[in-house]
Amino acid sequence: MVSIKWCLKQKLGIRILEPNTNICNSYLMMAEESIEELERIKTKIWIATASYYTFYYSLYALIIRLGIKCEIHSCSLEFMKEYLKEFYDEIDIELINKAFFARNDLQYYTNRPVEENIINEIKIGCKDFYIKTKDIIIKLTEEQINNIRDRIQCLKED
After folding, report:
1. Mean pLDDT of 56-67
2. What does DSSP assign to residue 139?
3. Are 140 and 65 in contact (CB under 8 A)?
4. For residues 107 and 23, which has the higher predicted lDDT (pLDDT)?
5. Apex CA 3: angle with CA 82 and CA 95, to 5°?
6. How many contiguous H segments (helices) and E segments (strands) does the chain have?
7. What is the pTM of this model?
8. How far is CA 103 from CA 35, 41, 53, in A?
9. Alpha carbon distance 138, 92 (integer Å)
10. How far apart are CA 9 and CA 108, in angstroms?
11. Cα dist from 111 to 9, 106, 135, whole Å
């Protein structure tokens, strides 16, 4: 299991940079494209993959808007769990993790079946997550951004 401290030490882990609305919007567009593809996909592996990336691109759009960069997916998920509690609840965290593991299991561990009900749950849930995240980004204040960035910076300096 990863930790924020571990992620801060990794070359591609959590880093602070300038908040970027343009890149944020690009990731939101990528999430929208994944949602559009979901309507055409029929196989479990690709439904799981498109659903996961809808979650991930949505989350990453918010992370970039905050001025954080992270190229390790498990670190981004840990960041969400630790620093975005005011925006996401336990159900959101559980659902994105289900999508993460479903995609991994189907792509890399073909002997690990993923139940149809989980595939359906993440397919539906990723769309709601995208809408929720887009709303969070719209309502995000500079005070919230600075608070999260300051907390990361303090941990980084420890």
Report:
1. 98
2. H
3. yes
4. 23
5. 55
6. 7, 2
7. 0.94
8. 16, 14, 9
9. 18
10. 27
11. 33, 8, 38
The two tokens of residue 139 are: 């309502």
Domains of the chain: 4-157 (1.20.120.330)
The answer to whether residues 4 and 78 touch, using CB atoms and an 8 Å cutoff, is: yes
Contact present, 93 and 1 (Cβ < 8 Å): no
Residue 147 phi/psi, 5-degree rounding, is -60, -50
Q: Which amino acid is at 158?
A: D
* pLDDT at residue 53, rounded to an integer: 97
**CA-to-CA separations, 142 to 17, 65, 125, in angstroms, rounded:** 15, 10, 28
CA dihedral 37, 21, 135, 98 (to 10 degrees): 50
Mean pLDDT is lowest, of 18-27, 93-102, 104-113, for 104-113
